[in-house]
User: What shape does this take?
Amino acid sequence: MGAGVYTRREFLKKTGKAVAASAVLGAGYVLADSRPDYPEEKIVESVSLNYAKDDSVLFGKLAVARDDTPSGLVKRAVAALGGIGVFISKGDKVVVKPNVGWDRTPEQAANTNPEAVAEMVRLCLSAGASEVIVADVTCNDQRRTFLRSGIKEAAEDAGATVFSYSSKNFMDVDLGGKLLTSWPVLKPIIEADKLINMPIVKHHGLTRATLGMKNFYGIIGGMRNQLHQKIDQSIVDLASFCRPTLVVADCYRALMRNGPVGGSLDDVKEYKTVVAGVDSVAVDAYLTQFLNLTPEDVRHIALAHKTGLGTMKIEDKVILDA
Assistant: This one.
């Protein structure tokens, strides 16, 4: 079977259940069953995951909500963009992708705030979503990380399914990037109708900031630590491959130093803010200020801007005070 370029639905129809699986639990840690039997011919297809609305007016807006609970901030930011019904339709299968990388508590600000995630789940279900799945490929042990972060309990209480993955839950896909070509992608991401990206604002030792685009490291398996040698290009490759329906960025607390893992409460600053938009580059550019940076300070933001994935010129956006 030769590789071709398909829409996501064409890809799913074409491949069916005959998919190759390859994954790791986190950076450098291979799952015990990560070498399952492949079908007679390994399937590696080219598929672009574009969940974004084709709406130039909406693309030109950013919503910023301040001084509320995490739940209230999410609700207000989404409302300012027109409400959840603008993004989610009845019957949609939705994946919410928070940052759930590390075995840390919400107060340590290494993972997305669980109350924010729960509110997004409730909003999607209120819009008629048939299913909401919360998924991420963690760096620390997935069971411990989802439990200690508070996201498993909060998301399930809100009505979501928290996805527990193994090597069989990945599909080998040609991402079509300059650096990233064939790579295992988390299956629920490919099968979703809509994708909500929910990063947290954190310092990162290599990139200076880990925000929305960097959060898509959590949709892939494989030896992700190998990508650190050219990390900025790999982030842009992922952002080109997977464009979310909506970005809702958690800045209730920000990890100012010693990221992305953190640990000390002295490294955390409370902002009580959520920023939402559909232009991933613009959202990330706006968020840099919370880490005392500029968009130009973060190379993958500048590269994504140059590539045409969005704009880092915040002055070109309508900023909605939610």
About this structure: Residues 48-163+188-321 form one domain. Residues 20 and 110 are 32 Å apart (CA to CA).
